[in-house]
Amino acid sequence: MRKIVIAGNWKMYKTQSEAKTFFSEFSDHLKATAPQAAIADQQILICVPYTNLAILQTVIPSFGQSNLNIGAQNVHWADNGAFTGEISAPMLVELGIKHVIIGHSERRQFFGETDETVNQRLKAAQSHGITPILCVGESKQQRDANETEAWIFSQLASDLAGVDQNNLIIAYEPIWAIGTGDTCAATEANRVIGLIRSKLSNPNTTIQYGGSVKSDNIDEIMAQPEIDGVLVGGASLDPAGFARIVNYR
Prior knowledge:
Elements: E1 4-9, H1 16-32, E2 42-47, H2 50-59, E3 68-71, H3 89-94, E4 99-102, H4 105-110, H5 115-127, E5 131-136, H6 140-144, H7 148-159, E6 169-172, H8 186-198, E7 206-210, H9 218-222, E8 229-232, H10 239-246
Parallel strand pairs: 1-2, 1-8, 2-3, 4-5, 5-6, 6-7, 7-8
Pathway: Carbohydrate biosynthesis; gluconeogenesis; Carbohydrate degradation; glycolysis; D-glyceraldehyde 3-phosphate from glycerone phosphate: step 1/1
GO molecular function, one term: triose-phosphate isomerase activity
Catalytic activity: D-glyceraldehyde 3-phosphate = dihydroxyacetone phosphate
């Protein structure tokens, strides 16, 4: 069975006090919008800035939501060293963090992330028992040039070399749909995710869709047979809206 993972990516938003307020409200909305029949084997994950990791790990248990976890947004490939501003896997493990986003397009675009460093980060996370969420996806120019499949297949081949697909989540995030409001059609996202799955050695790997996911399109997205969840950006900052996404029908 493929696990359903609904994940939020807060990016560089929310102070500690704002984060605690969010989770207090989110817990209430989550209970209020819960469907009568619980969604089986679903995991809720919110990846927050490093400054929020420790405080939220102490807050989350009080909500009694066993399938709700906190994740990080990046991890270095070395256990320690002269890497100013980076965070290592042992540091995340010490805080009880079990998930981390790796290779997000913003990291690739603004911070020099390459397929080689993505691969190293994936291996580092897995070597310490952390499940990485690998982000892949094409630009608008690549899609317009009919290079979507070739680009993503190239990313997968480089990023996943030597990576354990039994401890992995993949997020298909077309770059042109991230934060633009221009959501990829659900059927097209399903098609591309099916192609991604065809390149994996483990057919049960969870594959999410990400890119302008909102409360008003989550039902259609999650109705697609190849899509195992979503990676949500801006909409995960709103407790009511994200609760509705988590409790899709």
